[in-house]
Specification:
Length: 537
């Protein structure tokens, strides 16, 4: 058999021999041939020296795990005794075969850094590595700045095999995160600082004080409550990875538990990177505090001593109240976060938004028959809603017993900033731009149009306001406690149809709606715009 030089061939394992010098050899056959043609007593075997890590394998183990052994032909021995026997190849076990035998694509393995060298062909720098399994030499060409020193243990992922069995390696998740942390700005030293009205320390977003893993309880409630407390008052910073005395614990041990939540619908999709951590935090903010809270939080990562990761959540104050799970309300008071209940919430809103409860309305404001009230005299249009769901638009109010609402639309409210708000008994609110509603729906004055507005739910109240105003809705909970929620009109996209049910803005726990108020954003005293509030008869 003639073998080509510098080429790899598959041989069958035949037996294992240890010579008198203590070297271990594998004796191989090629294509099942056992004897030299014409020489019945000459056994045709090929010999290759066994690598150190295979010397202790038994023949049974070798036949089971590597019945075929790839060997590289590096040269030939001289003809044996000039007897015409074929030239025997000098074999070396193919390192690519060994690598494929011990390593799988897609798996992560531990390597030791031998040093940093330069490729003589390309001039590119690479790290020379030795694997922990069989101590073969490997190369890793970094795609970004990495600070590795000789002797460092690093985890790399085998992405595939290159020519001659060399690995295509990439940073493992752990090493990629370590590289990200290395490039971060150093963290401020907070040792000795105390928690106060604008500063809160949390050592972990995963572990409870008892050491149990509970990301939903820690990040999902404890930290969300702290953020809500800051946003409901004057803002503040939640420092993640810091102990109560300001010393650094770090978040490095938290990161493997990013995908352990039972309430996050994206659980299982978060990567163990800085981007994955921030995405987890922001999704939890939107889920627990609402989408309006997310833009108010700035997420910043820093590198503390010993490459410990810390994170600052900087919360800005919110004009609207921020609730945890749409019900629990927290405020920051000194160095604690306190939950408000019942009348405490009412008093807080009175102080924050500058209005009083209950609402007192002028009797003329809700008048729908008799002489025209003053509010209709300045109206450029009057939108009329009928009890059967019909609508009409005309220059003055309709005086009829089947009228549900006569809604005066002033020149200001017919501008692009004007808003018409329908509040339904089921907690849905439809916020509309009156000018577009009139233009799209009503072409003839005084004509009644059927199916003009949503009648699938009971329309309790309406109000007119501007995009800059705030809506405050009073409710009564099932346990009899009063409650109030406030909403910035600008945060809700205006609809062009009265038929849409709108968007649910009230939590489901209330038993009935008491009232709705409009507060002017630019009013110095934040007076109630009571003249724009009407109840269904």
């Amino acid at each position: 058999m003639k073998f080509d030089l510098n080429k790899s061939y598959k041989f069958d394992f035949n037996r294992k021999v240890i010579d008198k010098n203590g070297y271990t050899y594998f004796y191989l056959k090629y294509e099942g041939a056992a004897t030299v043609p014409g020489y019945e007593n000459a056994v045709l075997e090929y010999r290759v020296k066994a690598p150190d890590f295979l010397k202790d394998w038994t023949e049974e183990e070798i036949r089971e795990k590597m019945p075929k052994i790839d060997c590289f032909v590096s040269g030939y021995y001289p003809d044996l005794h000039n007897k015409g026997l074929p030239s025997f190849p000098y074999l070396i076990i193919d390192c690519g075969f060994v690598r494929r035998l011990f390593f799988e694509v897609g798996q992560t393995y531990l390597f030791t850094v031998e040093g940093k060298e330069t490729d003589s062909n390309t001039g590119s720098e690479y790290f020379s590595l030795s694997d922990e399994a069989i101590h073969y030499r490997h190369r890793y060409y970094p795609q970004k700045d990495i600070l590795w020193n000789s002797g460092d243990k690093v985890e790399l992922r085998v992405e595939g095999f290159l020519d001659k069995g060399h690995f295509k390696l990439s940073l493992s998740t752990k090493e990629n995160l370590k590289a990200e942390i290395t490039r971060l700005e150093p963290a401020e030293d907070l040792l000795g600082k105390r928690e106060n009205e604008s500063l809160e320390f949390k050592s972990s977003f995963v572990y409870t004080p008892e050491g149990k893993v509970d990301i939903d309880g820690q990040l999902g409630h404890e930290i969300m409550a702290q953020l809500a407390g800051f946003m409901n008052v004057a803002g503040g910073i939640v420092c993640l990875g810091y102990k109560d005395d300001g010393s650094v614990r770090g978040l490095n041990e938290d990161i493997p538990f990013l995908n352990t939540s039972k309430i996050d619908k994206y659980n299982g999709q978060y990567k163990e990177t800085l981007g994955g951590i921030e995405l987890k935090i922001r999704n939890m903010i939107k889920y627990k505090l609402g989408a309006d809270a997310d833009p108010l939080v700035q997420v910043e990562f820093y590198r503390a001593q010993n490459d410990r990761l810390v994170c600052l959540l900087k919360a800005s104050p919110s004009h609207n109240n921020i609730y945890v799970d749409r019900d629990e309300m927290y405020v920051r008071a000194g160095n604690i976060c306190r939950r408000l209940l019942g009348d405490e919430r009412i008093r807080f809103d009175q102080n924050k938004h500058g209005f009083k409860n209950p609402i007192v309305l002028d009797e003329n404001i809700i008048k729908t028959d008799g002489e025209a009230s003053p509010k209709y005299r300045s109206a450029v249009k009057v939108l009329t809603l009928y009890k059967n769901g019909d609508t009409s638009s005309q220059s003055s109010e309709v005086k009829s017993s089947d009228v549900l609402f006569n809604i005066p639309l002033t020149e200001e409210l017919m501008s692009e900033k004007g808003r018409l708000v329908f509040l339904y008994e089921d907690g849905y609110v439809n916020i509309m731009e009156p000018a577009k509603v009139i233009k799209k729906k009503f072409t003839d004055e005084w004509k009644r149009y059927s199916n003009g507005f949503n009648t699938k739910a009971n329309l309790l109240k309406y109000c007119v306001c501007t995009v800059d105003d705030t809506l405050c809705v009073y409710t009564e909970k099932k346990n009899g406690q009063s409650d109030v929620e406030s909403f910035e009109v600008a945060n809700y996209k205006a609809n062009e149809s009265m038929q849409t049910p709108g968007k649910r803005i009230l939590k489901k726990e209330y038993s009935k709606i008491i009232d709705i108020q409009v507060v002017h954003k630019d009013s110095a005293k934040r007076k109630l715009v009571s003249c724009a509030i009407n109840d269904a008869a």
